[in-house]
Amino acid sequence: MIDAKPFDEKTGATALLTGYKGCGENRWVAISNQLEFILTPGCTVRLQKYDTIQSNVRMEWTMDEFYDSGGPTSFIDRVSAALGIHASQMKVVAVYTGSVVVEYEIEPEDTDDSAAQLRALQTSLTALIESDEGVAAFGAPVLSASSGGSAIIEDPTYNPAARPTAATAPIPEVKQKATVTSTDVTLYLDTPTRNSLIGILVVLVLIVGCCFGCGTLTICFY
To answer: Where is the domain boundary, 162, 193, 209?
Structure first.
């Protein structure tokens, strides 16, 4: 079994796929509800369903305050401690502004009675969000929250459908390639290298032209 890529604080979402792990490397993009994975020649991917509580909480915070207080790691530590579960059973899948919105998952322990565990955790989570202890657990006043597809606290001024996307990683520069082909060799040049070679060739042509224009090539060597 290949675990999904971990949360990346720089992008505010699951880390991007690199392809280094080859077949089956995957990431879950909670904001767009997409599963991305790597396929290689001869690769067979088998998807296995597992039960979790999909939750969302919007807090009266700025992004700077959220990360200054420990970010996703501290968020998981506080909420899991309040629920009486191990921190490994929680996973943050997205963080974005509005004020601060955290999307997270809660998994059951690895036992045969996962459905009953999740029902109990859902009840405990709902009670925590609605209680005064929720501020300490989540780190800030809760403006709105949902869990398992149902709203727990609603904010009529907030429109989740208009939520912004998480910050994305900088788009890498795409280098153009010039190809010079002969019967024996193919040379690949990126744009900066190609431009430098063109500049050098232009200078050489000017020098040679100047030399022949003066009637002698000897001057060029002094």
So the answer is: 162
Same-domain status, 158 and 104: yes
Q: Is 1 inside any structural domain?
A: no
Q: What is the model's pTM?
A: 0.60
Q: Cα dihedral angle (128, 134, 139, 143), rounded to 10 degrees?
A: 110
Look at residue 58 and give its three-state secondary structure: strand
State how many domains the chain has.
2
CA 16 from centroid of its chain's CA atoms:
5
Residues 18 and 27: beta-carbon distance below 8 Å: no
Q: Residue 37 domain-assigned?
A: yes
Using DSSP bridges, classify how beta strands 142-147 and 53-59 pair: parallel, antiparallel or unpaired. antiparallel
Average pLDDT of the residues in 84-111: 88
End-to-end Cα spacing for the chain: 70
pLDDT digits (tens, 9 = 90+) for 116-153: 888 999 999 999 999 988 999 999 999 999 988 889 99
User: Cα separation of 2 and 24, whole Å?
Assistant: 7
CA 193 from centre of chain: 32
On whether both 147 and 207 belong to a single domain, the answer is no
- Provide the domain limits for residue 208: 177-221
Residue where the block lists tokens 């899948």: 93
Same domain for 137 and 80?
yes
